[in-house]
Amino acid sequence: MAIMRVNPNRMELLKLKRRGEVATRGHKLLKDKFDELLKEFVARITENRRLRVEVESRLAGAYGLLAIARAEAGRAELAQALLAGVPRDLVSVTERRVMSVRVPEFELGELGKPGGYSLATTPAVLDEALDALYATVPMMIELAEREKAIELLAAEIERTRRRVNALEYVLIPSITETIKDIQMKLDEADRSNLTRLMKVKEIIAAQEEPGESS
Amino acid sequence: MSKVAIIGDSTSVVGFRPLGFAVFAVRRPQDARELWSEVSGGEYGVVFVTEPVYEALGDLIAQSADSPVPAVTVIPGAGNPGGVGEAKLTRAIERALGTTVLTREEGQ
Q1: For A15-68, what is each residue's pLDDT tens digit?
Q2: Closest Cβ opposite residue B76 in set A41, A60, A78
């Protein structure tokens, strides 16, 4: 691991030790967050799969009925019958926080009631088809909400994993190594100072000895 | 309150008009690209797209993946086999876990 380019002195050593502590604490926190996110994520996936299968099969049923209606009434008739209806504000969007991820929540307002077309010119199966769609929409909205949450959670999990890994495998080892390096350099300086002092003492002692004897 | 949009071929989407959806019928999936800036502008909370449209708009949809709205959801259009939505989910799992092996086991 790369050692940081810092001056090997006590000041830097203290600073680095403090940084190391913060990094370790941050790593632990992020790791906990990651685990919790993952738990939430996996729990949501299973439920989502079930819902999606259900929505897809219901939609397929409704499309089947629509196809029969089209065959009975003709494409133009059907298109005309379904022209009624204007786009309206169907859902109210609120945001919720799941582990600091902002996920939307949709609440379905009142759906348009299918109808408004001539019952004389359209087949009865059209009513059935629209009823089937009408019944499916709440599930579709729920599916949309859940899938969005899963997407957002996935993005957050990816980000968190990168942070955890960067701390664990890059920053913390590099700080530890640098601390060790500085410590060794300081110890080395200490030892060389000590030997120098011993040497000086010896020299002084040697100088004083002949003086005493004379 | 937000609107709900649905984009796809007319057979798949026309039935949603009486229910109050904003219906965007496109002849070819590629035509939906021009609609996208309007649909993703924030007026719509939920956007449903059929599978061919999702495949044609993959890059545009990916841009809005990290914001809370619009929630883009794939539905199987009329006459499509389905499974694209599942694939989208699998991609999200792969993004989160780095693998899909674990969740496949759980799903079974």
Answers
A1: 999 999 999 999 999 999 999 999 999 889 888 989 998 999 999 999 899 889
A2: A60
In sequence order, the 6+-apart residues with CB closer than 8 A to the CB of A108 are A90, A91, A137, A138, A141
Give the domain extent around B60.
3-78
Q: Give the gap in angstroms from C-alpha B107 to the nearest C-alpha of chain A.
A: 6
pLDDT digits (tens, 9 = 90+) for A73-129: 888 888 787 877 778 888 888 888 888 888 899 998 888 777 777 777 788 888 888
Closest residue in A to B46 (Cα) is A144
Is B63 in CB contact (< 8 Å) with chain A? Answer: no
B45: in domain: yes
From chain B, pick out residues whose CB is under 8 angstroms from the CB of A52. Answer: 85-86, 89
The backbone torsions φ and ψ at residue B98, rounded to the nearest 5 degrees and listed phi first, read 80, -5
Reported pTM: 0.83
The structural domain count of chain B equals 1
Q: What is the 8-class DSSP label of residue A97?
A: E
Chain B residues within an 8 Å CB radius of A147:
71, 73, 85, 88-89
Q: What Å distances lie between residue A89 and A134, A199, B18, B92, CA to CA?
A: 16, 90, 13, 29
State whether A52 and B86 contact (CB < 8 Å): yes
Q: Which fold has domain A10-210?
A: Helix Hairpins (1.10.287)
In a domain, B12, yes or no: yes
Domain ranges within chain A, ordered by starting residue: 10-210
ipTM of the complex: 0.87
Beta bridge partners of B44: B3
Residue B99, domain member (yes or no): no
Residue B33 lies in a domain: yes
The sign of the torsion formed by the CA atoms of A59, A64, A68, A71 equals positive
Contact across the interface for A85 and B18, Cβ inside 8 Å:
yes
CATH at residue B47: 3.40.50.10580
